[in-house]
Amino acid sequence: MAVLANQRINAQRLWDSLGEMALIGPGVAGGCNRQTLTDADGAGRHLFARWCADAGMRMGVDTMGNMFATRAGTDPDALPVYMGSHLDTQPTGGRYDGVLGVLGALEVVRAMNDMGVQTRRPIVVTNWTNEEGARFAPAMLASGVFAGIHTQDYAYGRTDLDGKSFGEELARIGWVGDEAVGARKMHAMLELHIEQGPILEAEGKTIGVVTHGQGLWWLEITLTGRDAHTGSTPMNMRVNAGLGMARITEAVHRIAMSHQPNAVGAVGQVKVYPNSRNVIAGKVVFTVDIRSPEQGKLDLMRGEVERAAAAVAAELGLGCSIEPVGHFDPVTFDAGLVDVVRGAAERLGHAHMDIISGAGHDACWTNRVAPTVMIMCPCVGGLSHNEAEEISPEWAAAGTDVLLHACLEVAEVV
Question: How far apart are CA 264 and CA 261, in angstroms?
Fold first, then answer.
């Protein structure tokens, strides 16, 4: 590694690649709308595949549409080192969430090509399908199938708000591969990502060494009341599902605050029926998102939210059903790989700190099947899942340089 200590990626090439990918599925305010399995997602995949081919990599695709671009190692029998994240975005997403992890990994390979560096282990750059879960819940769906958390039949049967299924849309855009999901074995998995929170920027740190990830529950709550005219129905005769949702929203906030520190909660997606200006809502379907890196708190919060929802429904005379639609336990990333990332940041002279990921990532699932670690760089104001999401070219380069040096160490330079 001493010979390579001063090597860096091509920062301008990385930044240009991020900008070119952002032109596919553009948003309306400078960000991206490249939701999974849309035509835009298909176009982004084709661009990524072309870039990988240009870098001399061989592309494989599994039956969940996960993309694996391989750079050969000198030992064909050695387990590969995987790097990557996702190219899909939120409906009003930014340019860097997930995309930095994929294109940063590609830039690592490009930089290795420039240097003429060989590694004993193969290196695989990965684009995981449907990390966001914005169109097809739950999030991290395809990496979850890869890790054995979900079945492929379950994933294929997930539907979007228009009733279109994951399996049908994957076939429609032409990205059903021929590899069995999960058949690949990993020596290690490294994921670079923007923080999606304000801590690194506030602390003046360039690199976050991710030691743990928060666990979460997504609970879909359906409240059923009675549609009625808002002007002619007396207040004491209403069965208002919207009122029930409002009270449960307040309860979720109160429950999360009661478990501080290291606990968060909010209501996210909301569907109101019949969604008319002058009709009292007869039905509301909404998701509660609760998270904590502590298993005990996470379990307590779920129970408290479910009891609070049942109590509100009983008081207001509403029907109430609760379905878990997303879950993973708190994650502890591989201690050895954490040391590798920390050491790379130190050798490169980047200010760094240990950090807990507040968001879910594909790395949370790959951690179940192989040693895994995450690297984070700051984002301006901690803002993400928003078209105003922003990072600096310097932050992108620093995170990718750490990824390069960690990958070289784990993949074993020859």
Answer: 9
Q: Per-residue pLDDT tens for 19-34?
A: 999 999 999 999 999 9
| Statement: residue 245 has pLDDT above 90 | yes
- Phi and psi torsions of 252, nearest 5°: -60, -45
- With beta carbons less than 8 A apart as the criterion, state whether 245 and 388 touch: no
For 272, which DSSP code? E
Q: What pLDDT, in 10s, does the model give residues 28-71? A: 999 999 999 999 999 999 999 999 999 999 999 999 999 999 99
Non-local (6+) Cβ contacts of 131 within 8 A are 36, 85, 86, 88, 98, 139, 140, 141, 142, 143, 361, 362
**For residues 205 and 351, is the Cβ–Cβ distance under 8 A?**
yes
How many Å apart are CA 365 and CA 192, to the nearest integer? Answer: 15
pTM, two decimal places = 0.87
Give every CB contact of residue 245 below 8 A, 6+ residues apart in sequence: 221, 223, 267, 270, 281, 284, 286
